[in-house]
Structure formats: structure tokens, C-alpha cells
Amino acid sequence: MDAEHLPDSILIVDFGSQVTQLIARRVREAGVYSEIAPFSLAEEAFARLRPKGIILSGSPAGVPEEGSPRAPEVLFEAGLPILGICYGQQVMSHQLGGKVEAGTDGEWDGEFGRAYLTVTKDCTLFDGLWQVGERHQVWMSHGDKVTRFAPGFEIVATSDGAPFAVIADEERKFYGTQFHPEVVHTPDGGKLIANFVHHVCGLAGDWTMAAYRETKVREIREQVGTGRVICGLSGGVDSSVAAILIHEAIGEQLTCVFVDHGLLRLNEREQVETMFRDHYNIPLVVVDAEERFMAGLAGETDPEKKRKFIGKTFIDVFEEEANKIGGADFLAQGTLYPDVIESVSFTGGPSVTIKSHHNVGGLPERMNMKLVEPLRELFKDEVRALGRELGLPEIFVGRHPFPGPGLAIRIPGEVTKDRCDILRKADAIYLDEIRKAGLYDAIWQAFAVLLPVKTVGVMGDYRTYDSVCGLRAVTSTDGMTADVYPFPAEFLTQCATRIVNEVKGINRVVYDYTSKPPGTIEWE
Ligand code: XMP
């Protein structure tokens, strides 16, 4: 980005904490643009972004451990305000001449979870928020602690486990908190971070989604130049927002491909076609690949084999279509921040595969394409805000997530077109009832499942022998953990009655009461 267009920003240096993304969120909620850079690339990001303040994140590592990460020295020499959080406080103390000791020494074995601190001195971070002598709830998660702070600092708040709960060097505008202000369990945390960006860094807080849109459009133009971009649409909000943003930046250089694998929800394909062709006039290739997918799924009942087949076939179809239009230089994806965080994890070894998630990974190397991922810094609700900014209809913007393998993983056992049709109808009735009850936006994801189980029923004077339909609805913030949505009994009764009466092939409805963990959101 050229210098005159640089927004006022905060650089967040990531040492691999699980919650670094939340710092970015809090800064943006305060109306200030921020970017996260892994500590190893922080110097480069600092030079490029020219931030007005720096935040150092937490980390699974410990400062006393050999080889643990450090912040680039230039950050301390830049004359800019710095806020160090947890490990960030410790690494700053260490690098500026203080001392950090490991948690395993002596009696001390760390401070985890809810804690209370006492404010001992006024500090700009506490402006309009905390007074001397008050006690406040914060969230701690640390084994090591600072035992001697660096020259220039003083203690402004203490807790039982961390005498240096907050330290400050008002002259240099360096601050350190042993607790995590970015998590919701520190009730005033968002305001503390807002004080840092507004009062300490002096930023106005006038950054908006409209500004983000402008910035990204400019960046996409710079990255793509005159190249061609291809984007796989899933019908979900992420890929739709990415495509519309990219189209705004480069127009006809973008082609979107939508693979209809026959595993979509009711009317999904028509909705995507209408929106892209009629509403936005974006070139769209729709591939009808239902038969190919159904043929490959015939006889297959193993969940992983179903997933692998769908993932692979999706890539094959996508590649064939890309070749038909003469290939592309870039592949656009709607990757979000939570998808990225795992890949920058500081310790991050391979984790156990619970399910093979379907994506278009593998394609860029195979087809020699570079990636365009304009949503990499955003969270789901921010993508929705950007979607609204771009004029996407509400029905699209607020959509529940839908997995790439679609209905195939909601039909345990063999997937056939008939069973997909039955499930589509039941699912549409369930969602219709949810919308009518005004509950759609309170739920992270709701869907019907068609079980490979037949039960006996009675309708009128007749015996029925048909399939069981499961209903699922969960609340979640990121899909990683989930709670069951507690519908009133009458609501579920109404859904069951309608589904059994209106969908031929289903004669019994059950509700899934399993949280994640131990369940997963999808059934396969
Ligand atoms: P699970 O079932 O693992 O799902 O608890 C967590 C979230 O991920 C979605 N999901 C997928 N999304 N491709 C996707 O794009 C997939 O293969 C896939 N599998 C699950 C799921 O719908 C939920 O939101």
C-alpha cells in the first residue's frame, strides 16, 4: 500500500497465543485498524504498516525457556506506545532490563482463571474507568511472572498472584498487563484496550468497514495487477463476500465457479445464481455435477471416505472448469482469521484429525496459482458487516454456516438423490419455523439430519414404516465448541408435526441434545 493511503493502525505482534485474534477484534471495536504479524515477521510488518502503537500478545512459551520468542528491538526504539499482554508484558520487561522467573520455581505454580486486582496508582490506561483503591475482576493465565520490572516502570495495579498485575512507564508510554484484557472474562478489558488506542496512542477511532473495503480494494488491485482470478463459490457468506469485494476491485478479471454437487439446500443454487448474475452482474460458471457426485457416492457409507471423495471430486471439477476458461493466475478464497490462526501457532504440531474438512487446498500448487484472501484478518461477524457494506441481501449475510460436503454428511449411511430430496424438504421446514419464531439469528447453525433408521408409525388408519429425521441447533462463537439451543417443547412439537405431515419418507422426528465436545456439530 502506498504511504498516503496507510490507515492509522496498531500492530499486534503475535507470539502464538490462542487469543491474539481477540486483541485485533477489541482494537477494531475501538474503531482503529489493526494487523497481526507473527513475531518473526513483525519487523517487516512494522516497516510496511507504520503503526501508531504496538501490542505484544501472550504466548504458550515462557520467557525463561531457551529459544522462546522475542520482540524485534526496533519496536522498543521507535518511540511509539506499547502495550504488552501476559507474555508480552514479560518479554518487554525482560528485553528492557527486568527479570522474569519460571512458574515452577518454589511455591508458585501460576495463576489461572478469574482473579482480582487492586489499583494502586493512576494510569492513562485506567482513564475514566478504574480509580485507585478499587478492585476489579480480570482473567489471568500465566505460569511465569515478572519478578523485577525494567527501569522506568512502576506498578499501577497488583493481584495476589502477580504483584505486577499492571506496570506502566508513562514517559515512554509502555504498559504491561499480566492479565488478558482481550477476553470477555475481563469485563473492562475492551475499555482498557480502547483507552490504549485512544488516550495513549491518540487515535481517533474513526476506522470503519467502509474504510476497510477501500483499503482492500486497493490492495487487491495491487496484488492482482492484470492477472486473472478464479473464485470458488460455496453459497456461504465468506466466499460470496470475497467474490463481491474482488469484483469491485478488478471487475471482469474475476470469474466465479459454483459447483452444484447435488448436496445443496433447497433453492440454494438458484439463490446464488440470482444474486451473482442479476444483482451484481458477476461472471459466473455454474457446473451441474450432481450425477457425477451421486455416482461416486453410491454404496459408500464410511464418513471419511464420503468426505474424501467429495473433496477430491470438487477439486477435479473446479480444475476442469478453470482450464476451460483458460486458467487463472490467482485463486480467491474466503479464508477468515480463525482459519488462519492455527497456521501461525507458535508451537503448533500437527493435531489429531477428527474430520477431513473439505476445502480447495491443494489446488493452488497443482494449478500454479497464487492465493487472494481479502478476508484473512476478519471474524465471521466482521465479514457479515463487510457484506452489508457491499450491499449483500440480509438473507445471504446472516446465513448459518454450511459445510463444503453439504447434505452428504447429514445423511449417515448411503447418500442418494432421493434421500437428499427428502432431507432438503425437512430442512427447509425446520428453518422456516425457526425464522418464523424469530430465532434464526440467535442460533449459530440449525439443520436437519436424515438417519439410516426406519421406524414404525401410524397415520390415519395406516401403518407407516419410514425414516427418522434428527434436528440439530447449536449456539457457538467459532464452531470449535457448541452448546445445544434450548428450544421450547412446543416449538419442537410444531416442527415434528409439520415434517411428518409434509415430507413423504419421514415418520418420526428426534432432537439432538449433544453439545460439542463431546459431539461434533455435524453428524459425520
Ligand atoms: P464439526 O462438525 O467439526 O463442525 O463440529 C464445525 C463447523 O465446521 C463446519 N464444517 C465444515 N465446513 N467444510 C466446511 O467448509 C467441511 O468439510 C466441514 N465440516 C464441518 C460445520 O458445519 C460447523 O460449522
From TrEMBL:
EC number: 6.3.5.2
Gene3D superfamilies: 3.30.300.10, 3.40.50.880, HUPs
Enzyme class: ligase
Keyword presence, Ubl conjugation: no
Binding-site list for ATP: S234, G235, G236, V237, D238, S239, S240
Function: Catalyzes the synthesis of GMP from XMP.
Protein name: GMP synthase [glutamine-hydrolyzing]
Organism: Croceibacterium salegens
Organism placement in taxonomy: Bacteria, Pseudomonadati, Pseudomonadota, Alphaproteobacteria, Sphingomonadales
